[in-house]
Amino acid sequence: MKNQFFFALWLCLPALILATPALAGSSPVPPVAHVDLARLCGTWYEVARLPNKYEKDMVNVTMTLRARQDGKLQAINRGYRNSPKGKVSESHAIIWAPDPGKTGDLKIRFNPLMSANFRIVAIDSANYQHMIAAIGKSDFLWLLSKSSQIEKSELQNLIAIANRLGYSPEKLQIVSQDWNYAQKNPASPLPEKG
């Protein structure tokens, strides 16, 4: 039986965001102006994040994006509790750009009644290999890479960008991406390459 971690996150996240008091004098970091949604498709590996109770002790966290016929993206979020041998948690969501002129400012729907603003605040626009996604000013932040093994210099660059955007590097949590166990054990599902 799959852990319901991601389901709980997707179910509660919009309510939690609305309930979070606004920081005095602060506003959310603006999204990048343009994102090619088709180029976002594929598996993104979570390399760092702001700690949150929904992803506590999660490793090998991925977000796989697939294009849908209606122009939206299907998001499949997957992670493992405590280690790559741990219990797998998975959830599904739909992502779309409500304003075609602002494709970095996205919506994510977890179920028919709940959606949240999902902003891409930085992206490697030349290659689409790295991005930073956020919800809120300081509540949720993810540093993502299309490679499970990011170079140290690339990770430091992403952290520096997050710092320039107003996020504290000291608060970021590095996410373990150890796929050696998963590759040797087919029962442990790997993210699909996109």
Helix content: 10-25%
Order of helices and strands: HHEEEEEEEEHEH
C-alpha end-to-end distance: 26 Å
The main sheet comes to: 8 strands, antiparallel, barrel
- What is the structural class? alpha+beta
Question: How many helices does DSSP assign?
Answer: 4
Number of individual domains: 1
- What is the residue-averaged pLDDT? 81
Fourth-level CATH superfamily: Calycin beta-barrel core domain
Describe, in plain words, how this protein is organized in 3D.
Helix content is 19%, strand content 35%. It is an alpha+beta fold and 194 residues long. The chain has a single domain, classed as Calycin beta-barrel core domain (Lipocalin), CATH 2.40.128. Strands 1-2-3-4-5-6-7-8 form an eight-stranded antiparallel beta barrel. The longest helix has 15 residues, at 5-19. It is globular and about 40 Å long. 32% of the residues are buried.
Nutshell version of this structure?
The chain is α+β, with helices and mostly antiparallel strands and about 190 residues long.
Q: What keyword list fits this structure?
A:
194 residues; Lipocalin; disordered C terminus; alpha+beta; disordered N terminus; eight-stranded antiparallel β-barrel; globular; 35% strand
Layout of helices and strands:
Layout: H1 5-19, H2 37-40, E1 42-49, E2 58-67, E3 73-81, E4 88-96, E5 105-111, E6 114-123, E7 130-135, E8 140-145, H3 152-164, E9 173-174, H4 180-184
